[in-house]
Amino acid sequence: MKFGAKTKLFAALGAFIIITPLFALLIKVPWRNFFYQLDSLTPIKLSLWTSVVAAGLALLFGVPLAWIFAKSSSRTIAFIRPLVLTPMVLPPTVTGIALLALMGKRGLFGKYIYEVTGWSMPFTSAAVVLTGVFVGLPFIVLICESNFRQLPKEIEDAAIVDRASSGELFRDIALPQSISAISTAGTLAWARAIGEFGATLMFAGSLPGSTQTWTMLIYQRLEISPDSAYAFAALMLIVSVTVVAFLRKPLRNSFR
Predict the structure, then answer these.
(1) How far from the centroid of its chain's Cα atoms is residue 18's Cα?
(2) DSSP letters along 182-215, please?
């Protein structure tokens, strides 16, 4: 297919806007002492395990929710669906405030937990996990619901004829047929959770060794040690590019 000159120009400008900042970042990285600058791996370890747990929980809750969204036509579901997807476009500060309103010492649920146990979720690693679930679960729902809607109708009809229950249809037909989409959604939720900054900062804080995540470390190092900040940022860029490269084809298939 041949493209017009204007189409090529605007396409080139679009690619330029995205790619040049990434190259600029890589140019600023002190490659000669790259590994020396990565002097604190605790925030990376924290980000890795909290994001994995968050993605797992998002899958646990999000896949059944996506199935219900795909197969239900009730008005209640039509009302709930946009609310569940809202975190995808919600500003991080609003997300942080919402989580504080729910789980803070004076929050909707948090006050009762604090009164009974004396424990408060904000500024703990549990808060980092909950934030990851909150921002990652909508991606699970969006991708899996789209995939569930594409399942061959004849297979579902055959299962219904064989008197399969809705639970059996979900467990024995939908899940095996959607493994690729589910794994793609889980990976995307994990990537979203590991890169979260603003909401995590408001809800969990940035306590070294406890709640200071990879992104928070980059932000703080930029003021005191720019070379270190660029090194940690480049490492995250490498991870991000790898995730995108891995998800490119599965994502395209999920929304075809």
Answers:
(1) 20
(2) HHHHHHHHHHHHHT--HHHHHHH---TTTT--HH
Q: What is the pLDDT of residue 121?
A: 97
Question: Residue 68 and residue 150: Cα distance in Å, rounded?
Answer: 14
pLDDT score at 177: 87
CATH T-level fold of 45-205:
MetI-like fold (1.10.3720)
Q: What is the DSSP letter of 86?
A: G
Tokens describing residue 168? 């059996």
Q: Are the CB atoms for 104 and 77 separated by under 8 Å? A: no
How far is the CA of 148 from the CAs of 14, 67, 73, 133, in angstroms? 33, 7, 14, 21
Instruction: Give the contacts of 17 (CB within 8 A, at least 6 positions apart).
Output: none
pLDDT above 90: percentage of residues in the chain: 74
∠ Cα 230 195 216 (to 5°): 55
Q: How far apart are CA 22 and CA 234, in angstroms?
A: 9
Inter-CA distances, 45 with 18, 155, 198, Å? 28, 43, 19
Q: Where are the domains of the chain?
A: 45-205
